Amino acid sequence: xxxxxxxxxxxxxxxxxxxxxxxxxxxxxxxxxxxxxxxxxxxxxxxxxxxxxxxxxxxxxxxxxxxxxxxxxxxxxxxxxxxxxxxxxxxxxxxxxxxxxxxxxxxxxxxxxxxxxxxxxxxxxxxxxxxxxxxxxxxxxxxxxxxxxxxxxxxxxxxxxxxxxxxxxxxxxxxxxxxxxxxxxxxxxxxxxxxxxxxxxxxxxxxxxxxxxxxxxxxxxxxxxxxxxxxxxxxxxxxxxxxxxxxxxxxxxxxxxxxxxxxxxx
Length: 266
Description:
Domain Cytoskeleton protein RodZ-like C-terminal: 191-246
CATH topology of the domain at 16-93: 434 Repressor (Amino-terminal Domain)
Shape: elongated
Pfam families: HTH_25, RodZ_C
GO molecular function: DNA binding
Helix content: 40-55%
InterPro entries: Bact_Cytoskel_RodZ, Lambda_DNA-bd_dom_sf, RodZ-like_C
CATH superfamily of the domain at 16-93: lambda repressor-like DNA-binding domains
Protein name: Cytoskeleton protein RodZ-like C-terminal domain-containing protein
CATH architecture of the domain at 16-93: Orthogonal Bundle
Oligomer: single chain
Radius of gyration: 30 Å
Strand order of the largest sheet: 4-1-6-7
């Protein structure tokens, strides 16, 4: 038994990034479910919280990569939760900002500045002055060398410079390429289980999920062309299309299959 306990203690714990991702997914699912129960759209939440829509959507989907630094994420979660009637401070405190394993160094082990004697301070000042003079001298020498190199460097042909500038003008900006990529067709569904149900999801002809999900589960799937959702308990599944209000797929205990095609963005 002692050996087993020692082996369990030696198992590596989840990394801080993984802890954040897991907790964000859990909190985002709760916020999504609460918003659906209140019948509020993301646009309405933007008006209430003054948080951009893309950040609210990233929180609900548990997408850590589309969010800012952890300390800001915690603040966004607090505002989101407050707007839905939660205790925002308590709710957002569940999101880890710093590692629980990280401990502050005991104050007694840190060198105390008050223990420095005047002679030590004088020596420190002298050292700083010497380093500053040395650095300034090196900087002046480098500047002189660069000036000499510039004088000895032949001037660039004006026609070559003009050709280079023309090529730069013809290059498509990166921001334009990103905008074109974002204008591609896409479709998204979110499902919340009111009761345990079997579900199969097909995205662009590929089966993304097939199996039984327990009550309270919230999942999101995306596709570029078409999403197909089939279940054996339509009344137990709430489905939201492209962040719209969630609706039941059908009657309890009935089998239902729904296909959603992507619409081009105008």
